[in-house]
Structures are given as C-alpha cells and as structure tokens.
Amino acid sequence: MRTTAPTLLAIKTVLAIEERARLFGLDTPVKQIVGGEIQVTYSFEGVNLDDLT
Q: How confident is the model at residue 3 (pLDDT cuts 50, 70, 90)?
C-alpha cells in the first residue's frame, strides 16, 4: 500500500510558500509602461490660418 504522506507534505509546502509570497507582496502584478510614438493631427475647418499670424 502506498502512503500519501509525501504528497500531502509537498502540497502543504507549496501552500505555505504561496502564502508567504502573498504576505510579502511577491504575487502582485508588475506595472508595465507601454511606450510608443503617438502622432496627433489637428484639422481646423472654416479658419484661415493666415489670419492667425
């Protein structure tokens, strides 16, 4: 007959490690900054640009 003690001990250890990681904040998501080049184009309708200068 096989004993389940090693398997249960391994599960208990994994759960303890996960709990410790949670307590220390190691399971929090990492904030990622997504960069890139943004181009904005303005369109003015009904305005004479020469009158603005």
A: confident
The reply to whether 51 falls in a domain is no
Q: How far apart are alpha carbons 33 and 15 in whole angstroms?
A: 31
The contacts found for 32-35 with CB under 8 angstroms, 24 or more apart, are none
Position 47 scores a pLDDT of: 80
Where in the sequence is the domain holding 10, given as residue range(s)? Answer: 5-46
DSSP string, 5-21: HHHHHHHHHHHHHHHHH
Instruction: Give the chain's length.
Output: 53
Interval 21-40: pLDDT, tens: 999 988 888 777 777 888 88
Q: Domain total for the chain?
A: 1
